[in-house]
Records
---
Amino acid sequence: MFAFNRLRVFAIRNKKSFSSQIFKRYCVKYVQGQSPEPRVREYFYYIDHQGMLFLDDSRMKNFTSCFKDKKFLAFFFKHLKQNDTGRYMKDFPYISLCGPERNFVRCDDLPIVFTKILQKENNETGKNEDWFGYAHAEELLMVPFEPKKLYMNQSGRIYHPAPKKAGGIGLVRSKIAIELSSSFNFEEGEEKGPTHFFWKDKMYTLDCNWFKDKILLAIR
């Protein structure tokens, strides 16, 4: 808890922003650290399409200004869920709760962005299995990699199953998406999207149904 607060306070104090004033974007007004009721604090964050986490009112959003501490990121994203508080739900559709603190989150696409494929040994079989790490805290945040459930939309972005409470679907970082795209097979033509995916000497028939309800829930 202490490390979580310390990292955030450091970022607020050291960024060039309007954190001491009312910040206004898309007709949304807030003050970082505002207290709408006794012993409750509210903070506001933004996640870009590469999975980097920023304070929402940071003027410059790049690698130097994003949060990088993996323990902080793991804590933040493990508590991430859809915003059902009745506050800022339209503009910040996700929230990460930390005790009495409400950390409201908006994003470029989806809050879960997969950033690395890694191998992890199965303790029962002794074999290495593929996992999909996300949010740049890959060793601490990961889900099993499911090749048959990769989904490419019409714009070419690729998605994969994610933790249910965060919407159940996550975006694949563009760098990885480009690497994976060469393994898609389009039996019905590119205009209809991929039908198969080739991964580690095996051809997978893509599941075209798992994501449909999740798209409606997660992408607003």
---
Amino acid sequence: MPPKTMILNSLPSGRTTRPSNKDKHPGEIVKPRPRQKPSEVTQERHEAEEKEKEEQERRTKAIQTAANIEDELANEDMDRESERVAESMARKEALVAKKKYASSLSYALYSQGM
């Protein structure tokens, strides 16, 4: 049996790598992320926490603004309703007073014999 080195030597010498493929690594299509330093990780976490805190504050402020608007509208509605009720009560009192006056007037006229 011939030695294995002879088989390798017997390959055709015409096979070579193209110059454009010299520095390419087809086995590393998706390279792994390089490891980060602990200080970089801590800084990224801190930035993410700050960003989340700012977002939460923005949401809280928007909710508070909406709640204030709703409170103002509710107060305006209550004011309008109380005015409407007061006007309605005044009309009813005026109507009752008018009926009493008419009733007393008709009684007076009736008692006088007219």
---
Amino acid sequence: MNQTVNWDRSQLKIKNRIARKRYGYDSSISCKVHHEFAKATKKHEVIPIENVLKLPKFVQDIKLTCPDHEERFFVYCDDHGVPCCAHCLQNVHAGCRNLIPIQKLIQNVKESSLLIDLETTLSDLITNITNIIEDRTANLQDLEEQKTRCKREIKAHKEAIYAYVEELETDLLDNLQKTFIEREVKIQNTLKDLN
């Protein structure tokens, strides 16, 4: 029985909901039982639909069957960089020389140097992102401290300016009063002399 895996979120949710209503069980349980009895998929692990829906979009978009012929891919055409079903192989890729069976292509994928390099690169990327997050968090804290320090300095300068203006006002008022008294005395003396 060759079934096409359909990653459409709404259809997966609906299928699971119907199975629960009609049969009283999660549809992924029937898949699990089927995989346990089938020799080829005995070691496969069945995951809940909710977990499938949490996979990144590009993973959900991976096609397991040919979109033109609804048949499972069984070879990879290295000349064109595409997987092929039996119909594609006969009709489109008959003259291609670099055909690799899918099973051979994926058999050592976990030990391949490309995967190890990718894992190393991802690990380095995660470390770099973590360092960037820590650095930016420290920058935010420093920025907050600088803002607080600047506010304190502005307030201190404002108080110093106010104190200076107060002192200047006092000096000006004192000088004004002295000058007023001197002039007043002079004017009164002049008036006395004229009387």
